Amino acid sequence: MTVPVLTALPGVAEALLVAAAGRSPRLDVVRRCADLAELLAAAEAGLGSVALLSGALAHLDHDALAALRGSGALLVGVAAPGDEREADRLRAWGVDALVLAPGDDAAADAVVREVLAALARREATDPAGTTGGHIRQAGTGSPAPWSPPPVPPRRAEPASSGSRPAAPTEPPPARGQLVAVWGPTGAPGRTTVAVTLAAELAALGHRTLLADADTYGGSVAATVGMLDEAPGLAAAARAAAQGGLDLPTLARHSPLLAPGLRVLSGLARADRWPELGPAALDVVWDRARDLAAVTVVDTGFCLEEDELLSYDTRAPRRNAATTGALDAADTVVAVGSADPVGLQRLVRGLDELARRPAAAGARLVVVLNRVRSSTAGPGGERALREALERYAGVQDAVLVPEDRPALDAALLAGRLLREVAPASPARRALVGLAGLVAPVPATPAPSAGAAAGVLPGVDGGRGGTHGGRRREAAGAARRGRALVRPGRRRAAAAD
C-alpha cells in the first residue's frame, strides 16, 4: 500500500524529492503543486496523505497550515539549508517533521527516510486511527482519523564527552488562566465588566492582560483612554501567523495601562475583522498564558458558525475570534442586563453556550449588570435570582448595581472605575467578581518595576505607570502632539 504525497517546493529540490519518492516502495507523488492555493485544494480534496511544502511558499502562514492539518495531511516542512529563520518559522507553525532541502540524490533519499519515520511515528501514536482529523489511506476510499503531534522541538546538540552531566530540569512554571467575558446582543455592559475585572485582578497582584477580541465593535481602547490607537491584537495575530510571536513581541504590542495591567487593543474599524485569523489567535492566547497570570478577553456577542453553509470553500469566520476565546477559556464570565429583555437574552445565550462542547468544560460565572429597582420589579434582587435559577439553573450570579454617574465619569475621563470612584457600588460588586475569578491568592508586588508588570528580558525596565504617562505627555507636547483631553493615555503598540 503506497502513501500519496503532495509537493509544493521550489527549484531542483522538488525534482530530487520526486525521484527519491519514486525509488521508495511506500511513497507515490500524486500532485506537484505550483502554489499554496493548489496545495490547499488538493489536500482538502483528499488527494494526498503527506504534504512536502517549502517554508518560503508565498502566502504560507499559520492559518494555511491549520487548513492543511485539518485535511489530515502529514505536514513535512522543507527549509533551505542555512536559513534558520525559515526553519524556526516552520517549527513555530507546528509541522510534523522538519527537513532540509536536498541538493543531491543522497540527501533526497535521507529526506524520504525521514518522511517514512514520521509516518511510522504517527502510526505508533495512533495505531487504531481513533483521534481527531481525517487522512485518506492509500488504496482505499475510507477516511482514517488522525490528530497531529505537538510542535517538534529544536533538536539539542549532542553533548561532548567532557561536558558536565545535565542538571535536573525544574518543573515548568504554572501557566496563566484565560477568562473570556461574553454577553448576548443588546449591550449588557460586557466591555465595562471586562475592563473593571482586569483592573481589579491587577490590583490584587496578578499580572493581567486585557485583550479586545470583539470583531463587531471593539471599544476597550476608547473606554480606557488609549489615544493613537493601533490594534495590538491584530498585530500580535499577524506575528503569530508568520511564526514570529514570542513573549517580547507580545509585550511590545500590549502596553502597560496601570501597575500590572497590559492592554491588547482591538480593531479600530470593524471591517478589519479578517485580520484576526482563528489559528493565529489560538497562538496568541497560548502565548498570553506565559505573559500574564490572567488574560481577560472581551469577546463579541455572536456565536453563530454557519459560514460553511454559505461557502463551498474555506470560509471566512468573523465569529471565530469569539468562539475560539470561549473554547480556550478556563473561565467564562457571561454578562446579562438586569431587565426583562436582557434576562431573556441571557437565558437563551447560556443555553447556546452550553451546546459548545469545548466551552462546556470551562467554569461559568454569570453576572447580572445594571441592577436597579425600576427594572427588577417588586421582588428586587431576589426576583432576579429566582428567575435565573428557574430558567437557567444559575444559583450564584453576581449582581452589579447600576451606578451611571460613576461609570460616566470614568468614561469621560478615560480612566478606570477604581481610579475615579473607588467607593462605587458597581466597583465593589466587580471586586467580588475578581475574587471569584482570581486563580490563586496573589502577593502584592514588592517593587515599583514589578508593580508595573515589568517582565525580566521582556520590558527592558520600562513601565506604564502614571509617572511614565506624565513623561509621555511632556514628550508629546515637545513634538507638537499634545494629548487631546486630560487623563487620556497613549498606546505604545505599533500596528
TrEMBL record:
Annotated keywords: ATP-binding, Cell projection, Cilium, Flagellum, Nucleotide-binding
Protein name in UniProt: MinD-like ATPase involved in chromosome partitioning or flagellar assembly
InterPro entries the UniProt entry points to: CobQ/CobB/MinD/ParA_Nub-bd_dom (IPR002586), P-loop_NTPase (IPR027417), ParA/MinD_ATPase (IPR050625)
Pfam families assigned: CbiA
Region Disordered, annotated ranges: 123-183, 455-495
Organism this protein belongs to: Cellulomonas marina
Cellular component annotations (GO), alphabetically ordered: cytoplasmic side of plasma membrane; cytosol
Biased composition annotated in UniProt, kind: Basic residues: 478-495
Ranges of biased composition (kind: Low complexity): 158-167
GO biological process: negative regulation of cell division
Signal sequence range: none
Coiled coil: none
Domain named CobQ/CobB/MinD/ParA nucleotide binding: residues: 180-393
Gene3D superfamilies: P-loop containing nucleotide triphosphate hydrolases
Domain of life: Bacteria
A GO molecular function held by the record: ATP binding
